[in-house]
Write a structure and sequence with these properties.
With 588 residues, this protein is mostly beta strands. It has five domains: 121 residues, Immunoglobulins (Immunoglobulin-like); 107 residues, Immunoglobulin-like (Sandwich); 83 residues, Immunoglobulin-like, CATH 2.60.40.1120; 103 residues, Immunoglobulins (Immunoglobulin-like, Sandwich); 99 residues, Immunoglobulins (Immunoglobulin-like). Helix content is 4%, strand content 41%. The strands form ten sheets. Strands 19, 20, 21, 22, 23, 24, 25 and 26 form an eight-stranded mixed sheet that branches. Strands 10, 13, 15, 16 and 17 form a five-stranded antiparallel sheet that branches. Strands 30-27-35-32-33 form a five-stranded mixed sheet, with no helix packed on it. It is globular and about 80 Å long. About 9% of the residues have low confidence.
Length: 588
Protein backbone atom coordinates (compact mmCIF):
# COMPACT_ATOMS: atom_id res chain seq x y z
CA UNK A 1 0.00 0.00 0.00
CA UNK A 2 1.41 3.38 -0.99
CA UNK A 3 2.08 6.17 1.48
CA UNK A 4 -0.48 8.37 -0.31
CA UNK A 5 -3.19 5.69 0.13
CA UNK A 6 -2.37 5.37 3.85
CA UNK A 7 -2.55 9.15 4.30
CA UNK A 8 -5.89 9.30 2.47
CA UNK A 9 -7.31 6.51 4.62
CA UNK A 10 -6.18 8.30 7.78
CA UNK A 11 -7.87 11.49 6.59
CA UNK A 12 -11.09 9.50 6.11
CA UNK A 13 -10.85 8.04 9.59
CA UNK A 14 -9.87 4.57 8.32
CA UNK A 15 -7.20 2.28 9.66
CA UNK A 16 -4.99 0.36 7.23
CA UNK A 17 -5.89 -3.34 7.31
CA UNK A 18 -9.09 -2.74 9.29
CA UNK A 19 -11.90 -4.83 7.66
CA UNK A 20 -14.54 -2.44 9.02
CA UNK A 21 -12.77 0.76 7.94
CA UNK A 22 -15.33 3.09 6.33
CA UNK A 23 -15.21 3.88 2.65
CA UNK A 24 -16.05 6.99 0.69
CA UNK A 25 -18.44 6.96 -2.29
CA UNK A 26 -18.83 9.86 -4.67
CA UNK A 27 -19.21 10.83 -8.29
CA UNK A 28 -21.20 12.91 -10.71
CA UNK A 29 -24.77 12.69 -12.02
CA UNK A 30 -25.02 13.34 -15.75
CA UNK A 31 -27.72 13.22 -18.39
CA UNK A 32 -27.37 10.17 -20.62
CA UNK A 33 -25.96 10.75 -24.11
CA UNK A 34 -25.40 14.51 -23.63
CA UNK A 35 -23.19 14.05 -20.50
CA UNK A 36 -24.51 17.35 -19.14
CA UNK A 37 -24.17 17.44 -15.30
CA UNK A 38 -27.48 17.40 -13.43
CA UNK A 39 -27.37 20.02 -10.71
CA UNK A 40 -29.10 19.50 -7.39
CA UNK A 41 -30.05 15.88 -8.15
CA UNK A 42 -31.03 13.97 -5.00
CA UNK A 43 -28.90 10.85 -4.62
CA UNK A 44 -29.41 7.91 -2.23
CA UNK A 45 -27.13 5.04 -1.28
CA UNK A 46 -29.02 1.79 -0.67
CA UNK A 47 -27.35 -1.31 0.78
CA UNK A 48 -27.80 -4.58 -1.08
CA UNK A 49 -28.55 -6.62 2.02
CA UNK A 50 -27.84 -9.99 0.44
CA UNK A 51 -24.28 -9.00 -0.36
CA UNK A 52 -23.47 -6.46 2.32
CA UNK A 53 -21.58 -7.86 5.32
CA UNK A 54 -22.94 -4.99 7.41
CA UNK A 55 -26.75 -5.15 7.27
CA UNK A 56 -28.61 -2.33 8.94
CA UNK A 57 -29.73 -3.30 12.43
CA UNK A 58 -29.78 -0.01 14.27
CA UNK A 59 -32.63 2.50 14.17
CA UNK A 60 -30.08 5.29 14.21
CA UNK A 61 -29.75 7.05 10.87
CA UNK A 62 -26.11 7.49 9.90
CA UNK A 63 -24.98 10.34 7.68
CA UNK A 64 -24.42 8.09 4.65
CA UNK A 65 -28.02 6.85 4.90
CA UNK A 66 -29.41 10.33 4.31
CA UNK A 67 -30.11 11.59 0.76
CA UNK A 68 -27.41 13.85 -0.64
CA UNK A 69 -28.10 16.75 -2.98
CA UNK A 70 -25.59 17.11 -5.80
CA UNK A 71 -23.94 20.49 -6.28
CA UNK A 72 -24.34 22.70 -9.35
CA UNK A 73 -21.79 20.52 -11.18
CA UNK A 74 -23.74 17.35 -10.43
CA UNK A 75 -21.13 16.08 -7.94
CA UNK A 76 -22.01 14.22 -4.74
CA UNK A 77 -20.18 12.31 -1.99
CA UNK A 78 -21.09 9.93 0.84
CA UNK A 79 -18.54 9.78 3.66
CA UNK A 80 -17.95 7.07 6.30
CA UNK A 81 -19.77 4.34 4.35
CA UNK A 82 -19.52 0.82 5.86
CA UNK A 83 -17.88 -1.66 3.46
CA UNK A 84 -20.39 -3.64 1.41
CA UNK A 85 -22.54 -3.75 -1.71
CA UNK A 86 -24.75 -0.79 -2.61
CA UNK A 87 -26.98 0.65 -5.27
CA UNK A 88 -26.84 4.34 -6.09
CA UNK A 89 -30.29 5.69 -6.83
CA UNK A 90 -31.19 9.14 -8.12
CA UNK A 91 -34.68 10.33 -7.22
CA UNK A 92 -36.78 10.69 -10.34
CA UNK A 93 -38.33 14.05 -11.22
CA UNK A 94 -40.61 15.23 -13.99
CA UNK A 95 -37.45 16.00 -15.96
CA UNK A 96 -35.47 12.78 -15.65
CA UNK A 97 -35.55 9.23 -14.35
CA UNK A 98 -32.66 7.23 -12.97
CA UNK A 99 -31.10 4.45 -14.97
CA UNK A 100 -31.65 0.75 -14.27
CA UNK A 101 -30.47 -0.25 -10.81
CA UNK A 102 -28.03 -2.80 -12.21
CA UNK A 103 -26.11 0.02 -13.88
CA UNK A 104 -25.43 1.74 -10.56
CA UNK A 105 -24.37 -1.19 -8.38
CA UNK A 106 -21.06 -0.85 -6.57
CA UNK A 107 -19.03 -2.62 -3.92
CA UNK A 108 -17.14 -0.48 -1.42
CA UNK A 109 -14.09 -2.18 0.08
CA UNK A 110 -12.72 -1.26 3.54
CA UNK A 111 -11.07 2.14 3.42
CA UNK A 112 -11.68 2.52 -0.33
CA UNK A 113 -12.33 5.90 -1.90
CA UNK A 114 -14.72 5.72 -4.86
CA UNK A 115 -14.83 9.31 -6.04
CA UNK A 116 -15.17 9.08 -9.84
CA UNK A 117 -18.43 7.23 -10.27
CA UNK A 118 -20.55 8.33 -13.22
CA UNK A 119 -24.28 7.99 -12.67
CA UNK A 120 -26.46 8.43 -15.75
CA UNK A 121 -30.06 9.56 -15.68
CA UNK A 122 -32.41 9.50 -18.64
CA UNK A 123 -34.57 12.41 -19.75
CA UNK A 124 -38.12 11.63 -18.67
CA UNK A 125 -40.91 11.01 -21.13
CA UNK A 126 -44.48 12.26 -20.95
CA UNK A 127 -47.88 11.41 -22.39
CA UNK A 128 -50.65 13.95 -22.78
CA UNK A 129 -53.98 14.13 -24.50
CA UNK A 130 -57.68 14.74 -24.10
CA UNK A 131 -60.43 12.51 -22.74
CA UNK A 132 -63.96 12.91 -24.06
CA UNK A 133 -67.22 11.12 -23.34
CA UNK A 134 -69.38 9.28 -25.88
CA UNK A 135 -70.91 12.63 -26.95
CA UNK A 136 -67.53 14.20 -27.63
CA UNK A 137 -67.70 16.41 -24.54
CA UNK A 138 -64.77 16.88 -22.17
CA UNK A 139 -64.60 14.15 -19.53
CA UNK A 140 -63.57 16.47 -16.70
CA UNK A 141 -62.07 14.67 -13.73
CA UNK A 142 -61.47 11.41 -15.60
CA UNK A 143 -58.78 9.27 -14.00
CA UNK A 144 -56.10 8.37 -16.56
CA UNK A 145 -53.47 5.73 -15.86
CA UNK A 146 -50.25 4.74 -17.57
CA UNK A 147 -49.93 0.96 -17.27
CA UNK A 148 -47.13 -1.48 -17.97
CA UNK A 149 -48.10 -4.94 -19.10
CA UNK A 150 -47.09 -8.23 -17.53
CA UNK A 151 -47.19 -11.59 -19.24
CA UNK A 152 -48.36 -14.99 -18.09
CA UNK A 153 -48.87 -18.18 -20.11
CA UNK A 154 -48.07 -16.18 -23.22
CA UNK A 155 -50.88 -13.67 -22.56
CA UNK A 156 -50.60 -9.96 -21.99
CA UNK A 157 -52.15 -8.75 -18.73
CA UNK A 158 -53.08 -5.10 -18.22
CA UNK A 159 -53.56 -4.46 -14.55
CA UNK A 160 -52.97 -6.63 -11.50
CA UNK A 161 -51.23 -9.97 -11.87
CA UNK A 162 -49.08 -12.10 -9.65
CA UNK A 163 -46.16 -9.98 -10.88
CA UNK A 164 -47.60 -6.69 -9.61
CA UNK A 165 -50.33 -4.13 -10.14
CA UNK A 166 -48.84 -2.56 -13.29
CA UNK A 167 -50.06 1.00 -12.69
CA UNK A 168 -47.10 3.35 -13.13
CA UNK A 169 -48.62 6.81 -12.87
CA UNK A 170 -52.02 8.48 -12.64
CA UNK A 171 -53.39 11.85 -13.72
CA UNK A 172 -56.74 13.65 -13.52
CA UNK A 173 -58.25 15.32 -16.57
CA UNK A 174 -58.99 19.03 -16.14
CA UNK A 175 -62.23 20.80 -17.02
CA UNK A 176 -61.32 20.64 -20.70
CA UNK A 177 -60.67 16.91 -20.46
CA UNK A 178 -56.93 17.44 -20.86
CA UNK A 179 -54.42 15.33 -18.95
CA UNK A 180 -50.66 15.00 -18.77
CA UNK A 181 -48.57 12.22 -17.24
CA UNK A 182 -44.97 13.29 -16.60
CA UNK A 183 -41.88 11.61 -15.22
CA UNK A 184 -42.20 8.37 -17.20
CA UNK A 185 -39.29 6.12 -17.94
CA UNK A 186 -38.96 5.72 -21.73
CA UNK A 187 -40.74 2.54 -22.72
CA UNK A 188 -44.04 1.02 -23.74
CA UNK A 189 -47.27 1.88 -21.93
CA UNK A 190 -50.98 1.31 -22.18
CA UNK A 191 -53.51 3.94 -21.12
CA UNK A 192 -56.79 3.40 -19.29
CA UNK A 193 -59.35 5.93 -18.14
CA UNK A 194 -62.40 5.90 -15.90
CA UNK A 195 -65.16 8.47 -16.01
CA UNK A 196 -65.28 11.28 -13.47
CA UNK A 197 -67.93 9.65 -11.26
CA UNK A 198 -65.26 7.30 -9.93
CA UNK A 199 -63.66 8.81 -6.87
CA UNK A 200 -59.89 8.73 -6.71
CA UNK A 201 -60.09 6.25 -3.88
CA UNK A 202 -62.23 3.75 -5.70
CA UNK A 203 -60.32 4.23 -8.93
CA UNK A 204 -57.06 3.44 -7.22
CA UNK A 205 -58.38 0.46 -5.27
CA UNK A 206 -60.69 -1.02 -7.83
CA UNK A 207 -58.81 -0.35 -11.06
CA UNK A 208 -62.09 -0.51 -12.93
CA UNK A 209 -62.69 -4.16 -13.50
CA UNK A 210 -59.68 -5.88 -12.03
CA UNK A 211 -59.25 -6.59 -8.33
CA UNK A 212 -55.98 -6.05 -6.56
CA UNK A 213 -56.38 -8.65 -3.88
CA UNK A 214 -57.19 -11.76 -5.93
CA UNK A 215 -59.70 -13.86 -4.01
CA UNK A 216 -61.95 -12.05 -1.54
CA UNK A 217 -62.38 -14.32 1.43
CA UNK A 218 -63.91 -17.53 0.11
CA UNK A 219 -65.81 -15.86 -2.70
CA UNK A 220 -63.63 -13.80 -5.00
CA UNK A 221 -64.10 -10.36 -6.51
CA UNK A 222 -67.24 -8.39 -5.78
CA UNK A 223 -68.87 -9.36 -9.07
CA UNK A 224 -68.52 -13.00 -8.12
CA UNK A 225 -71.87 -13.74 -6.54
CA UNK A 226 -75.18 -11.90 -6.85
CA UNK A 227 -75.98 -12.90 -3.28
CA UNK A 228 -72.80 -11.47 -1.77
CA UNK A 229 -72.37 -7.84 -0.62
CA UNK A 230 -69.89 -5.74 -2.57
CA UNK A 231 -66.60 -5.83 -0.71
CA UNK A 232 -63.51 -4.40 -2.34
CA UNK A 233 -60.18 -6.10 -2.86
CA UNK A 234 -58.84 -4.84 0.44
CA UNK A 235 -61.83 -6.18 2.36
CA UNK A 236 -63.24 -2.71 3.14
CA UNK A 237 -67.01 -2.73 2.66
CA UNK A 238 -67.32 1.07 2.59
CA UNK A 239 -65.38 1.44 -0.67
CA UNK A 240 -66.47 0.18 -4.10
CA UNK A 241 -64.77 -2.98 -5.27
CA UNK A 242 -63.88 -4.47 -8.58
CA UNK A 243 -67.01 -3.55 -10.55
CA UNK A 244 -69.38 -2.49 -7.80
CA UNK A 245 -71.44 -0.41 -10.17
CA UNK A 246 -71.80 0.47 -13.83
CA UNK A 247 -69.00 3.06 -13.75
CA UNK A 248 -66.12 0.78 -12.82
CA UNK A 249 -65.13 -0.64 -16.20
CA UNK A 250 -62.35 1.44 -17.80
CA UNK A 251 -61.76 2.34 -21.39
CA UNK A 252 -58.36 1.71 -22.93
CA UNK A 253 -56.54 3.74 -25.54
CA UNK A 254 -57.58 4.23 -28.34
CA UNK A 255 -61.12 4.03 -26.91
CA UNK A 256 -61.87 0.32 -26.47
CA UNK A 257 -63.31 -1.66 -23.56
CA UNK A 258 -61.56 -4.95 -24.25
CA UNK A 259 -57.99 -4.94 -22.84
CA UNK A 260 -56.88 -7.30 -25.61
CA UNK A 261 -57.70 -4.55 -28.12
CA UNK A 262 -55.70 -1.88 -26.30
CA UNK A 263 -52.92 -0.32 -28.37
CA UNK A 264 -49.52 0.32 -26.86
CA UNK A 265 -47.99 3.78 -26.73
CA UNK A 266 -44.23 3.95 -27.15
CA UNK A 267 -42.49 6.93 -25.59
CA UNK A 268 -38.86 7.95 -25.92
CA UNK A 269 -36.59 10.01 -23.74
CA UNK A 270 -37.21 13.78 -23.78
CA UNK A 271 -39.80 13.39 -26.55
CA UNK A 272 -43.29 14.36 -25.32
CA UNK A 273 -46.07 12.26 -26.80
CA UNK A 274 -49.03 14.54 -27.36
CA UNK A 275 -52.54 13.93 -28.62
CA UNK A 276 -53.08 10.53 -26.98
CA UNK A 277 -56.79 11.27 -27.12
CA UNK A 278 -59.52 8.72 -26.53
CA UNK A 279 -63.11 8.30 -25.39
CA UNK A 280 -64.60 6.95 -22.19
CA UNK A 281 -68.20 5.91 -21.70
CA UNK A 282 -70.58 8.09 -19.73
CA UNK A 283 -71.55 6.66 -16.34
CA UNK A 284 -75.19 6.54 -17.44
CA UNK A 285 -74.27 4.62 -20.58
CA UNK A 286 -71.62 2.31 -19.22
CA UNK A 287 -72.78 -1.24 -19.64
CA UNK A 288 -72.08 -4.05 -17.25
CA UNK A 289 -73.01 -7.62 -17.75
CA UNK A 290 -73.58 -10.80 -15.80
CA UNK A 291 -73.48 -14.54 -16.19
CA UNK A 292 -76.32 -16.73 -14.99
CA UNK A 293 -76.47 -20.43 -15.49
CA UNK A 294 -76.77 -23.94 -14.21
CA UNK A 295 -74.50 -26.96 -13.94
CA UNK A 296 -76.04 -30.21 -15.21
CA UNK A 297 -74.93 -33.77 -14.46
CA UNK A 298 -74.73 -35.05 -18.03
CA UNK A 299 -75.32 -38.70 -17.10
CA UNK A 300 -78.33 -38.09 -14.84
CA UNK A 301 -79.66 -35.14 -16.90
CA UNK A 302 -80.44 -33.14 -13.78
CA UNK A 303 -78.93 -30.31 -11.79
CA UNK A 304 -75.64 -31.13 -10.16
CA UNK A 305 -75.16 -30.57 -6.45
CA UNK A 306 -72.29 -29.16 -4.39
CA UNK A 307 -70.52 -27.61 -7.35
CA UNK A 308 -67.50 -25.33 -7.57
CA UNK A 309 -67.81 -22.80 -10.42
CA UNK A 310 -64.70 -20.97 -11.58
CA UNK A 311 -65.00 -17.87 -13.79
CA UNK A 312 -61.80 -16.54 -15.35
CA UNK A 313 -61.39 -13.66 -17.84
CA UNK A 314 -59.72 -14.86 -21.03
CA UNK A 315 -57.81 -11.57 -21.41
CA UNK A 316 -55.63 -12.51 -18.45
CA UNK A 317 -57.07 -10.40 -15.64
CA UNK A 318 -55.78 -11.63 -12.32
CA UNK A 319 -59.15 -12.20 -10.65
CA UNK A 320 -60.66 -15.65 -10.82
CA UNK A 321 -64.12 -15.95 -9.33
CA UNK A 322 -64.87 -19.06 -7.26
CA UNK A 323 -68.53 -19.81 -6.49
CA UNK A 324 -69.89 -22.58 -4.29
CA UNK A 325 -73.30 -23.80 -5.44
CA UNK A 326 -75.35 -26.39 -3.58
CA UNK A 327 -78.09 -26.71 -6.20
CA UNK A 328 -76.01 -26.18 -9.36
CA UNK A 329 -77.20 -22.64 -10.17
CA UNK A 330 -74.91 -19.59 -10.19
CA UNK A 331 -75.03 -15.91 -11.06
CA UNK A 332 -72.58 -13.01 -11.16
CA UNK A 333 -73.32 -9.28 -11.20
CA UNK A 334 -71.83 -6.05 -12.57
CA UNK A 335 -69.06 -7.63 -14.63
CA UNK A 336 -67.29 -5.72 -17.33
CA UNK A 337 -68.19 -7.07 -20.78
CA UNK A 338 -65.66 -9.59 -22.01
CA UNK A 339 -64.96 -13.23 -22.73
CA UNK A 340 -64.83 -15.59 -19.77
CA UNK A 341 -64.01 -19.23 -19.22
CA UNK A 342 -66.56 -20.84 -16.90
CA UNK A 343 -65.50 -24.15 -15.36
CA UNK A 344 -67.51 -26.44 -13.07
CA UNK A 345 -66.13 -29.11 -10.78
CA UNK A 346 -67.60 -31.74 -8.45
CA UNK A 347 -65.32 -33.72 -6.15
CA UNK A 348 -67.69 -36.22 -4.49
CA UNK A 349 -68.96 -38.88 -4.73
CA UNK A 350 -66.95 -39.01 -7.98
CA UNK A 351 -65.01 -36.38 -9.88
CA UNK A 352 -67.05 -34.63 -12.59
CA UNK A 353 -66.06 -31.53 -14.52
CA UNK A 354 -66.96 -29.36 -17.49
CA UNK A 355 -66.01 -26.05 -19.04
CA UNK A 356 -67.28 -23.55 -21.56
CA UNK A 357 -66.44 -20.11 -22.98
CA UNK A 358 -68.97 -17.31 -22.45
CA UNK A 359 -68.92 -14.10 -24.51
CA UNK A 360 -70.61 -11.15 -22.77
CA UNK A 361 -69.30 -8.41 -25.06
CA UNK A 362 -72.70 -7.92 -26.74
CA UNK A 363 -75.36 -9.68 -24.68
CA UNK A 364 -76.05 -10.85 -21.17
CA UNK A 365 -75.27 -14.50 -20.59
CA UNK A 366 -78.48 -15.61 -18.89
CA UNK A 367 -78.92 -19.28 -19.80
CA UNK A 368 -75.49 -20.81 -19.58
CA UNK A 369 -75.54 -24.58 -19.21
CA UNK A 370 -72.41 -26.46 -18.20
CA UNK A 371 -72.65 -30.24 -18.49
CA UNK A 372 -70.27 -32.06 -16.17
CA UNK A 373 -69.09 -35.58 -16.88
CA UNK A 374 -66.39 -38.02 -15.78
CA UNK A 375 -62.92 -36.94 -16.75
CA UNK A 376 -60.96 -38.44 -19.62
CA UNK A 377 -57.44 -39.80 -19.84
CA UNK A 378 -54.99 -40.19 -22.70
CA UNK A 379 -52.54 -43.03 -23.02
CA UNK A 380 -49.43 -42.44 -25.07
CA UNK A 381 -45.79 -43.21 -25.68
CA UNK A 382 -42.57 -41.48 -26.63
CA UNK A 383 -40.59 -42.53 -29.66
CA UNK A 384 -36.90 -41.64 -29.89
CA UNK A 385 -35.59 -40.63 -33.31
CA UNK A 386 -38.39 -42.52 -35.02
CA UNK A 387 -37.63 -45.82 -33.25
CA UNK A 388 -39.42 -47.23 -30.23
CA UNK A 389 -37.29 -47.18 -27.09
CA UNK A 390 -35.09 -50.21 -26.80
CA UNK A 391 -31.82 -51.25 -25.22
CA UNK A 392 -29.26 -48.49 -25.38
CA UNK A 393 -31.83 -45.71 -25.71
CA UNK A 394 -32.13 -43.00 -23.05
CA UNK A 395 -33.97 -43.60 -19.80
CA UNK A 396 -37.24 -41.70 -20.23
CA UNK A 397 -38.45 -42.09 -16.64
CA UNK A 398 -37.39 -38.53 -15.77
CA UNK A 399 -39.49 -36.99 -18.58
CA UNK A 400 -42.90 -35.35 -18.14
CA UNK A 401 -45.63 -34.81 -20.73
CA UNK A 402 -47.71 -31.65 -20.23
CA UNK A 403 -51.07 -30.72 -21.72
CA UNK A 404 -51.69 -26.95 -21.70
CA UNK A 405 -55.28 -25.74 -21.95
CA UNK A 406 -55.83 -23.58 -25.04
CA UNK A 407 -56.68 -20.87 -24.22
CA UNK A 408 -54.78 -21.11 -20.98
CA UNK A 409 -56.98 -21.12 -17.88
CA UNK A 410 -55.59 -19.73 -14.63
CA UNK A 411 -57.97 -21.86 -12.58
CA UNK A 412 -57.20 -25.10 -14.46
CA UNK A 413 -55.43 -27.89 -12.65
CA UNK A 414 -52.10 -28.98 -14.01
CA UNK A 415 -52.48 -31.84 -16.45
CA UNK A 416 -49.27 -33.75 -16.81
CA UNK A 417 -47.92 -37.24 -16.48
CA UNK A 418 -44.57 -38.78 -15.64
CA UNK A 419 -43.14 -41.02 -18.35
CA UNK A 420 -42.29 -44.63 -17.58
CA UNK A 421 -38.90 -46.10 -18.33
CA UNK A 422 -40.26 -47.73 -21.48
CA UNK A 423 -41.59 -44.37 -22.75
CA UNK A 424 -45.28 -44.90 -21.98
CA UNK A 425 -47.46 -42.43 -20.07
CA UNK A 426 -51.08 -41.88 -19.09
CA UNK A 427 -52.45 -38.38 -18.52
CA UNK A 428 -55.44 -38.33 -16.17
CA UNK A 429 -58.16 -35.85 -15.16
CA UNK A 430 -58.83 -34.26 -18.57
CA UNK A 431 -62.10 -32.49 -19.28
CA UNK A 432 -63.47 -31.67 -22.69
CA UNK A 433 -61.33 -28.81 -24.03
CA UNK A 434 -58.59 -27.81 -26.47
CA UNK A 435 -55.03 -28.75 -25.57
CA UNK A 436 -51.45 -28.32 -26.74
CA UNK A 437 -48.65 -30.76 -25.96
CA UNK A 438 -45.24 -29.97 -24.51
CA UNK A 439 -42.47 -32.07 -23.03
CA UNK A 440 -40.22 -31.51 -20.03
CA UNK A 441 -36.90 -33.28 -20.27
CA UNK A 442 -33.68 -33.25 -18.24
CA UNK A 443 -31.75 -33.76 -21.47
CA UNK A 444 -30.95 -30.33 -22.95
CA UNK A 445 -30.13 -31.83 -26.34
CA UNK A 446 -33.50 -33.30 -27.30
CA UNK A 447 -36.45 -31.60 -28.98
CA UNK A 448 -39.97 -32.55 -30.04
CA UNK A 449 -40.07 -33.56 -33.71
CA UNK A 450 -43.75 -34.42 -33.99
CA UNK A 451 -46.90 -35.13 -31.98
CA UNK A 452 -49.73 -37.30 -33.31
CA UNK A 453 -53.07 -38.30 -31.81
CA UNK A 454 -53.87 -41.38 -33.80
CA UNK A 455 -53.34 -40.34 -37.42
CA UNK A 456 -53.75 -36.59 -36.76
CA UNK A 457 -50.68 -34.32 -36.59
CA UNK A 458 -51.30 -32.12 -33.53
CA UNK A 459 -47.86 -30.58 -32.92
CA UNK A 460 -48.82 -27.18 -34.33
CA UNK A 461 -52.61 -27.15 -34.12
CA UNK A 462 -53.20 -28.93 -30.81
CA UNK A 463 -56.31 -31.08 -30.39
CA UNK A 464 -59.81 -31.03 -28.95
CA UNK A 465 -61.15 -33.58 -26.49
CA UNK A 466 -64.90 -34.15 -26.58
CA UNK A 467 -65.01 -37.74 -25.34
CA UNK A 468 -62.69 -40.50 -24.21
CA UNK A 469 -60.14 -40.91 -27.05
CA UNK A 470 -59.43 -44.37 -28.43
CA UNK A 471 -56.21 -43.31 -30.15
CA UNK A 472 -52.84 -42.98 -28.43
CA UNK A 473 -50.74 -39.85 -28.25
CA UNK A 474 -47.37 -40.38 -29.90
CA UNK A 475 -44.52 -37.95 -29.24
CA UNK A 476 -41.42 -38.28 -31.41
CA UNK A 477 -38.31 -36.68 -29.97
CA UNK A 478 -35.15 -35.98 -31.90
CA UNK A 479 -31.61 -36.28 -30.64
CA UNK A 480 -30.09 -34.48 -33.61
CA UNK A 481 -30.94 -31.04 -32.24
CA UNK A 482 -28.83 -28.06 -33.01
CA UNK A 483 -27.38 -25.40 -30.75
CA UNK A 484 -26.82 -21.67 -30.77
CA UNK A 485 -23.80 -19.92 -29.31
CA UNK A 486 -22.65 -16.37 -29.55
CA UNK A 487 -21.13 -13.30 -28.06
CA UNK A 488 -22.04 -9.69 -27.45
CA UNK A 489 -18.93 -7.63 -28.30
CA UNK A 490 -20.45 -4.51 -26.77
CA UNK A 491 -19.33 -3.51 -23.27
CA UNK A 492 -23.02 -3.48 -22.29
CA UNK A 493 -22.79 -7.20 -21.59
CA UNK A 494 -20.04 -6.92 -18.99
CA UNK A 495 -21.37 -3.77 -17.31
CA UNK A 496 -24.13 -5.72 -15.57
CA UNK A 497 -23.65 -7.08 -12.10
CA UNK A 498 -23.34 -10.91 -11.83
CA UNK A 499 -26.67 -11.03 -10.04
CA UNK A 500 -28.49 -9.26 -12.87
CA UNK A 501 -27.13 -10.51 -16.20
CA UNK A 502 -28.59 -9.47 -19.53
CA UNK A 503 -30.92 -12.02 -21.13
CA UNK A 504 -30.70 -13.37 -24.64
CA UNK A 505 -33.99 -14.58 -26.14
CA UNK A 506 -34.25 -16.99 -29.07
CA UNK A 507 -37.57 -16.42 -30.87
CA UNK A 508 -38.81 -18.85 -33.55
CA UNK A 509 -39.97 -17.63 -36.95
CA UNK A 510 -43.50 -16.32 -37.24
CA UNK A 511 -45.02 -19.71 -38.03
CA UNK A 512 -43.88 -21.25 -34.71
CA UNK A 513 -44.39 -18.42 -32.23
CA UNK A 514 -47.53 -19.93 -30.72
CA UNK A 515 -45.41 -22.76 -29.25
CA UNK A 516 -43.88 -21.69 -25.91
CA UNK A 517 -41.37 -24.58 -26.01
CA UNK A 518 -39.84 -23.11 -29.18
CA UNK A 519 -38.45 -20.12 -27.26
CA UNK A 520 -35.20 -20.12 -25.30
CA UNK A 521 -34.00 -17.61 -22.71
CA UNK A 522 -30.44 -17.66 -21.33
CA UNK A 523 -28.22 -15.21 -19.50
CA UNK A 524 -25.02 -13.69 -20.80
CA UNK A 525 -21.96 -14.53 -18.76
CA UNK A 526 -19.50 -11.87 -17.63
CA UNK A 527 -17.57 -12.30 -20.87
CA UNK A 528 -20.66 -11.52 -22.92
CA UNK A 529 -21.02 -15.12 -24.13
CA UNK A 530 -24.06 -17.40 -24.27
CA UNK A 531 -25.01 -20.94 -25.31
CA UNK A 532 -28.33 -22.64 -26.05
CA UNK A 533 -28.80 -26.39 -26.61
CA UNK A 534 -31.67 -28.62 -27.70
CA UNK A 535 -32.86 -26.33 -30.49
CA UNK A 536 -35.11 -27.83 -33.13
CA UNK A 537 -33.79 -27.26 -36.66
CA UNK A 538 -35.30 -24.13 -38.17
CA UNK A 539 -34.98 -20.36 -38.46
CA UNK A 540 -34.95 -18.02 -35.47
CA UNK A 541 -34.05 -14.53 -34.32
CA UNK A 542 -31.94 -13.54 -31.33
CA UNK A 543 -32.85 -10.54 -29.17
CA UNK A 544 -30.98 -9.02 -26.23
CA UNK A 545 -32.91 -6.19 -24.58
CA UNK A 546 -31.13 -4.09 -21.99
CA UNK A 547 -34.51 -3.70 -20.30
CA UNK A 548 -37.48 -5.98 -20.89
CA UNK A 549 -40.43 -7.39 -18.95
CA UNK A 550 -40.25 -11.17 -18.69
CA UNK A 551 -42.45 -12.76 -21.31
CA UNK A 552 -42.92 -9.59 -23.37
CA UNK A 553 -41.40 -11.38 -26.36
CA UNK A 554 -44.52 -13.57 -26.50
CA UNK A 555 -46.65 -10.50 -27.35
CA UNK A 556 -46.76 -9.96 -31.15
CA UNK A 557 -47.47 -6.25 -30.66
CA UNK A 558 -44.33 -5.84 -28.57
CA UNK A 559 -42.14 -7.99 -30.79
CA UNK A 560 -43.22 -6.12 -33.91
CA UNK A 561 -41.39 -3.04 -32.63
CA UNK A 562 -38.07 -4.87 -32.60
CA UNK A 563 -38.43 -7.30 -35.48
CA UNK A 564 -35.74 -5.53 -37.52
CA UNK A 565 -33.32 -5.46 -34.59
CA UNK A 566 -33.26 -9.23 -34.11
CA UNK A 567 -30.25 -11.21 -35.33
CA UNK A 568 -31.34 -13.97 -37.75
CA UNK A 569 -29.92 -17.42 -37.14
CA UNK A 570 -30.52 -20.78 -38.86
CA UNK A 571 -30.17 -23.93 -36.79
CA UNK A 572 -29.27 -27.20 -38.52
CA UNK A 573 -29.40 -30.75 -37.17
CA UNK A 574 -26.40 -31.63 -35.04
CA UNK A 575 -24.65 -28.31 -35.65
CA UNK A 576 -23.98 -25.16 -33.63
CA UNK A 577 -24.92 -21.83 -35.14
CA UNK A 578 -22.77 -18.90 -34.06
CA UNK A 579 -23.97 -15.31 -33.88
CA UNK A 580 -22.69 -11.92 -32.83
CA UNK A 581 -25.42 -9.84 -31.22
CA UNK A 582 -25.82 -6.27 -30.04
CA UNK A 583 -27.94 -4.98 -27.14
CA UNK A 584 -31.24 -3.31 -27.84
CA UNK A 585 -31.24 0.05 -26.10
CA UNK A 586 -34.06 0.85 -23.66
CA UNK A 587 -36.11 3.40 -25.55
CA UNK A 588 -33.48 6.10 -25.86
Amino acid sequence: MSLASIVLMMLLGAEPGNPTAPASVGGVVVMAETNVPVEHAVVRLLPISEESPFPLKSSRIESWQKPVKADKNGRFVFAKVPPGAYRIVVNRTTSFVSGPLHENSIHANPGESLRDLRIEVTPAASISGRIVDSHGKAAAGAVVRAITASYENGRRILGPSRFGVGIVSTALANNRGEYRIDGLRPGQYFLSANSSSNSIGSATLGFGGYGIGGFLGSGGPAWCDANLPAVNSLGISSLPAIVAGPTRAPSFFPGVRDPSEAVAINVKASVPLDHADFRVEDPSESRTTSIKGVVIDAALEKRAENVEVWITPVDGGSDTCLLQSKNGSFETVNMRPGIYIVSANIETPSRLAGRTIVDTTRNLARNVTIPVAPLFHIHGHIVVDGNSPAAGTPDLSSYFVNLQSDPAVNSARLTYAAVSRDGTFDIQSLMGWDYRVSLRSPDPNIYVQSVRLGSADVLHSGFRLENQPDAELEIVIGRDSGAVAGVMPSAAAVSRSPGDPMKVVLVPDSGQRFRPDSYRVVALNQKGEFEMAGIAPGTYKLFAWQEVTDGAWSDPQFLRLYEDQGTPVRVSSGETAFASIEPIAPWK
